[in-house]
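If you are new to this repository, start here. Below is one unmodified record pulled from the training split, so you can see the exact layout before writing a loader.
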Amino acid sequence: MRNCELRAVGAVAVSEARPTADWDDGALNPGSGATLPENARHSVTRRERASGAETAESSRRSETLTAIETVRTLPTNRAVFAHVRILHVMEGAVEVETERDIRRLMPGSALALGAHQWCAIRPLPCVRMWTIYAHEEFIREQMAWFLPEATRVRSGLHPHEWDGGPLVLVPGLPTLRRVEPLWRQMSVLGRGADTPEMVAIRTVELLAQWMGIVVPVFLAPDAEPSRERTWAPVTGRLTAFSAIGHVGRAVQLLHERMDEPWTTTTLARAIAISRTHLTRQFVSGTGIAPMRYLAEVRLTEFSRLIEESDCSVAHAAKVVGWTDPRTASNWFHRRYGMTPSQYRLNPHPHTSATSAA
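And here is the target side for that same chain:
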């Protein structure tokens, strides 16, 4: 096992999310999957059946799309997912093996893979990525809405043409950096007090803004620009020029010194601006408040330690700055739907090299 003190250079190290899948219906349902015993199923009333169906449908809708920031330093098994995965490389490099081939991805590139297909990831030697997990029916319907004229789309990229095989796109690193604040907001949806309706609405809003930035990547070179005014939710830089330095320094401090007992006040003092000014600029630049950002930084590093080392939960929590391991476990459960111990004992469905060959 790797030493649990290991940190990835240049980025906070995190474990790749592994949402568990409900293999009966393919719905994204992390942490669920409980079924009634066979001898009890016939006693379920019509009202209970309806209630259960509504709950399952509500759960499916609320978990239709999620984004997870990851840094990997170790290769993964050939994992099978019941939903579409879209990997975006931000730093480092990675080889992604699928049933069809092996692709090497560099910063600024992305790879989409359809549901129920395995892939394995090999960092070269370390990679930071944003991985999007999407319900296949939902993402195909939305992409068809965003790309209404198939004749204007590059061959094979329209959702009605894509066969679900590995699809590599190169939006470019500047483009992915513009999208990153949207993914970060997407990653914390549903983990607060928001209603299911607001989570669903916000999910579609963020997806629309994301597509507004990257849609040129999908268009054919000879696609003529629309003569009408194009709806562009993001028309320029997402942060004010005066905010880049302060926000960048604050983010750097939280990554490099996550184990310190930060507050918004101490962070503002460290970069010599007011607490109010820091909060306003930080939310504008990253999509979330400073202390929520710190919690996410700690959680992703804690997750990597749970994934890639054998150190105890208490020690992993201490390494990232949580003095109480229960705090770490609670945050972990909110993201993955299970405790760290359950996560370690719950291998994700995967195929062996022999069976996949």
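Two things worth knowing about this chain: The longest strand covers residues 118-134. The radius of gyration is 21 Å.
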